[in-house]
Design a protein that fits this description.
Blueprint (H helix, E strand, L loop, with lengths): L3 E4 L14 H10 L4 E5 L4 H7 L13 E4 H4 L1 E6 L2 E7 L4 H17 L12 E3 L4 E4 L7 H7 L4 H10 L6 E6 L3 E6 L4 H12 L6 E5 L9 H5 L3 E4 L3 H10 L2
Parallel strand pairs: 1-2, 1-10, 2-3, 10-11
Antiparallel strand pairs: 3-4, 4-5, 6-7, 7-9, 8-9
Helix pairs in contact: 1-9
């Protein structure tokens, strides 16, 4: 029915910020035998490669796999036994510095800097700026306790959005807020999939775990892509097992 199935990563393919497990790795490899698959995530290419691609079986048909890191602001495809980048939408140094300064200001003014964190809270991922409370590689159990109801991050978004009207802001992962150029959300990169792979909107299915305003998966629903909601990787496994 679908020519391409698009997956979010954290809490969809893997638990937040962890590696793909053996079962879903094998299911993914089987899916790639006959289906095109895309992964759109706020992670960068190196993380996607390490946590997913590298752990797929060696006989996987990687030519059917397309990677869209940093909320799809880049695209990678597999050809001639290597991964190639087709395009990237990078922030300028001036834009990156401005976004970081706004985040730093409101984190301080709202008293949202945590008492304990492991390293940098604001990271330049070239095509997006990410605020990751505690640090992106902090222990998962600590991250899960920090903002489970998203109220801390929502408060931050509510204040910074007035200073960042020319940018797209989305809550993501367990503790993150992602900021990209205006309009460069997941719906925009669904359009990029259509343009680059010659696929119609109705031929795309998007598998996601979160659908809330200001959440980074939400724009896909607004674009009227056929979306399938999962709660965790176990739900994704059930979905993959039921595919014909």
């Amino acid at each position: 029915m679908y020519k391409i199935i698009v997956f979010d990563k954290d809490d969809t393919i893997t638990k937040a910020k962890t590696n793909i497990d053996t079962e879903i790795s094998n299911l993914f490899s089987k899916l790639l035998e006959k289906n095109k698959v895309a992964i759109i995530t706020w992670w960068n290419f190196d993380n996607i490669y390490t946590q997913i691609v590298k752990l797929l079986p060696k006989n996987t048909n990687f030519s059917n796999l397309f990677l869209f890191p940093t909320i799809g602001t880049q695209m990678y495809y597999f050809k001639n036994w290597e991964w190639k980048r087709k395009y990237a939408e990078f922030l300028s140094e001036e834009e990156a510095n401005y976004i970081k300064s706004v985040l730093e200001k409101w984190l301080k003014d709202l008293n949202l800097i945590p008492e304990k964190y492991w390293w940098e809270l604001i990271e330049n991922r070239w095509s997006q700026i990410t605020y990751s409370a505690l640090w992106q590689k902090a222990p998962l159990e600590e991250k899960q306790k920090f903002d489970p109801d998203k109220k801390i991050r929502q408060k931050l978004v509510d204040y910074v959005k007035n200073d960042l009207k020319d940018y797209t802001i989305g809550i993501a992962g367990t503790t993150s807020v992602d900021i990209t150029k205006k309009g460069l959300d997941k719906a925009y990169w669904i359009k990029k999939i259509m343009e680059n792979l010659w696929i119609k909107k109705e031929e795309i299915s998007f598998i996601w775990d979160a659908l809330f305003p200001w959440w980074n998966d939400y724009p896909v629903k607004e674009f009227w892509i056929d979306c399938i909601k999962v709660n965790n990787p176990e739900d994704t496994k059930k979905y993959l097992k039921n595919l014909k």
